[in-house]
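DM between two lab members

TW: hey, do you still have the Hypoxanthine phosphoribosyltransferase entry open?
JB: yeah, one sec
JB: this one, 180 aa:
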Amino acid sequence: MRAHDVKEILIDKSEIAQRVDSLVDEIISDLKPERLLVVGILKGSFMFLADLMRSFHRHNVHPRIDFLTLSSYGSGTISSGTVDIIHDLRDDLSGAEVLLVDDILDTGRTLAFTKKIMLERGAKSVHSCVLLDKKAHRSVEFEADYAGFAINDHFVVGYGLDYDNLYRELPHIAKVGFHE
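TW: and the structure you got?
JB:
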C-alpha cells in the first residue's frame, strides 16, 4: 500500500493547453525563431515540450530540439542540492538562441546550473520556459523568462511531473497527499 494519494486537480488539461499556446505566442514575439534551439530537460518536461513544439508548428516556427537529462531529486520529494548530468546534449550550441524547457522551477538550482553550462558552451543567449513556478523553496536567484502557472508549496504530479516515477501520464496537474 502506498503512503500517498493523488488529491485534487490544481490545473486541468484545458487550462494547460490554453497556457501553452499563449507561452508560444510570447516566445516567438521575443526570440528569433530561425536560430532557436529548444532544450528539454528530461524526464519531467516531455509532455510540456511536446505540446510547445506542436504549438510552434501551428505558428509555422520550426526550432531545432535536443534533450538533457538531469537529476536533483532521486526518488525523494526534496532536492538533493546537487545537479547531475545523466544524458548530455548532442547539438552544437555555438551562436544558438537556447530555450530551456523544464516542468517546474522550484529551488532554481537545475535551471541556473543548465543556463551557466549553455552559455559556457557558446550559446548566444539562454532563456527558460517552465510549466510551473513554485517560489517557496527557491535557494538560488533565478526567475524563468516564461512561466505557465505559479503554484503554492504543494508536491504535484501529472503532465510529466512524477512522484518516484509515477503519475507522469496524468493529463492535468494534481496535488499529492502523503499520510502515515
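TW: got it. Residues 157 and 174 are 5 Å apart (CA to CA). The chain has a mean pLDDT of 89.
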